[in-house]
Design a protein that fits this description.
4-stranded antiparallel beta sheet; 485 residues; elongated; 17 helices; binds 5'-O-[(L-methionyl)-sulphamoyl]adenosine; Isoleucyl-tRNA Synthetase, Domain 1; 2 domains; 6-stranded parallel beta sheet; 16 strands; Rossmann fold
Length: 485
């Protein structure tokens, strides 16, 4: 789907109702890996992430803290920004839905839906739990009682504007069937098709009872439905409808499986109504702890802002991608993280770089020896895996290279075999170079360090060819990963 040489990618925008957790981090890291990979391939990339700052939930949290909603989200935003900084998330735009630039686009899209005859005024009637500030369907209540607060839900009637989502049901089904890359993985596409066997209901897209939101351009009594406001962020970050939008759109949305309906069906129908091409969606799984979904409301969380006190950001990035197969749920545990850090990052990679450079210093006075690389790598296989967003498989394939270099050096014993020393060490260094370009999307800080020590630049996947490492002096640095007990 990618147009010309442009690639737009996004994470969902997080609710800043609480501090970020490792689930939010996971999504940002996966997206960052893809964005970095595309840049290495030579694409112009626009990568956005940000915050979903409106709605009654945010207003409620602000109130509980005795703060104005805007002050509250301003305060909370720093933690999400810090998260991105700590983990080297290479976003091009961090959007906050309370920004002025966003309001303009939300109104523009709403008016497109309206002018197209897809918005009408009606009455919203639903079962409402005041404590949750949420409407429930009868089937989701326990005999009419809110499942969380154990209080009876009230029937609430409220004037509301509706979006004719029902009108798009057939077109959506056809689109999903004809465009397998619209929703991936396939299992998720089938889930959506199954849900579309039931008739689609029109969607309430405004509230009179929620103050903290963007006022409707056609009726200032109403604020725009938080999900409509939120989804439109993907257009705002590329300056819809101007040049940047024309260059970059359609976007690839990386989202968790709880919000796939919003991104495929709701967002899809808004866009169809506005006459805008549909995006692609790739759904990742959940980061669990002992099988339970990590979330603030369940109290099962890992604080990613503290985790870097104990482990390098790259180790956490590596662990999350390697351990949790992209597209599936997986478990977070510090034990498993330590194991991968010690065995794979410190031993396989760190040691390899360290001992190779020590030998170059010892035997060649710190100068990269001349030679011809004897090792071979199947880069095409990795490219293919990355093309299908098989991040975990791609990373483990790259790791096989790392292990292959280790096997080679152990077999050849350049510390003993003087005759072969030049060739073997050149092969090892040239291979380390290739591997660190491939790994740079996953563990960018580490690969930057390796490239500085070996004296090359990480610029393009095209440089992943053997025998390109030039002669020159190495600069041995600190060890890459310290083991953690
Ligand atoms: N604000 C909405 C998204 C609007 S996008 C136009 C929202 N926010 S959220 O903070 O609840 O979730 C943000 C993202 O984090 C979602 O993609 C969600 O699936 C993901 N995750 C939240 N908890 C998660 C895990 N435990 N594991 C992995 N990702 C999870 O939904």
């Amino acid at each position: 789907m990618t147009k010309k040489n442009y690639f737009q990618i996004s994470t969902a925008i997080d609710y800043p109702t609480n501090f970020p957790h490792a689930g939010h981090l996971y999504e940002k890291i996966c997206t960052d890996v893809i964005a970095r990979w595309k840049r290495l391939q030579g694409f112009k990339v626009h990568f956005s992430t940000g915050l979903d700052e409106f709605g009654s939930k945010v207003a409620k949290c602000a109130k509980a803290k005795g703060m104005e909603p805007q002050k509250f989200v301003d305060y909370m935003s720093q933690f999400f920004l810090k998260l991105c900084k700590l983990y080297n998330i290479s976003y091009d735009d961090f959007i906050r839905t309370t920004e002025k630039r966003h309001e303009k686009i939300v109104n523009e899209i709403f008016m497109k839906n309206y002018d197209n005859g897809d918005i009408y005024k009606g009455e919203y009637e639903g079962l409402y739990c005041v404590d949750c500030e949420t409407f429930y369907l009868e089937k989701d209540l326990d005999n009419g009682y809110c499942p969380i607060h154990k209080k009876p839900a009230e029937v609430v009637r409220e004037e509301s504007y509706f979006f004719k989502m029902s009108k798009y049901q057939e077109r959506l089904i056809k689109y999903i069937k004809e465009n397998p890359s619209f929703i991936r993985p396939e299992k998720k596409r089938n889930e959506m098709l199954n849900r579309l066997k039931e008739p689609l209901r029109d969607l309430s897209v405004s509230r009179t009872s929620v103050d903290w939101g963007i006022r409707l351009p056609i009726d200032k009594k109403h604020t725009n439905y938080i999900w409509q406001t939120a989804l439109i962020n993907y257009l705002t970050t590329v300056d819809y409808p101007n040049k940047k939008f024309k260059d970059f759109w359609p976007c690839l949305h990386i989202v968790g499986s709880d919000i796939i309906w919003h991104h495929s069906i709701i967002w899809g129908s808004f866009l169809m109504s506005a006459g805008i091409e549909l995006p692609e969606i790739f759904v990742h799984g959940f980061v669990n702890i002992k099988g339970q979904k990590m979330s603030k409301s369940s109290g099962v969380v890992v604080d990613p802002l503290k985790l870097t006190d104990k482990y390098p950001a790259d180790a956490i990035r590596y662990f999350l991608i390697r351990e949790i197969t992209f597209g599936h749920d997986g478990d977070f545990s510090e034990e498993a993280l330590k194991e991968r850090l010690n065995n794979e990052l410190a031993n396989d990679l760190g040691n390899l770089v360290s001992r190779s450079l020590t030998m170059v210093e010892k035997y060649f006075d710190g100068k990269i020896p001349k030679g011809k690389n004897e090792l071979k790598f199947d880069i095409e296989k990795i490219k293919k895996l990355m093309e299908n967003y098989e991040l975990t498989n791609a990373l483990s394939e790259i790791w096989k290279f790392v292990q292959e270099i280790n096997r080679y050096i152990n077999k050849e014993k350049p510390w003993e075999n003087e005759k072969r020393r030049e060739t073997v060490l050149y092969s090892v260094l040239d291979s380390i170079k290739i591997v660190s370009i491939l790994l740079s999307s996953f563990i960018p800080e580490t690969c930057e360090k390796i490239s500085k020590q070996l004296g090359f630049e990480i610029k393009s996947l095209k440089d992943c060819k053997t025998n390109l490492l030039k002669e020159g002096k190495i600069k041995r640095g600190e060890i890459l990963f310290k083991k953690v007990e």
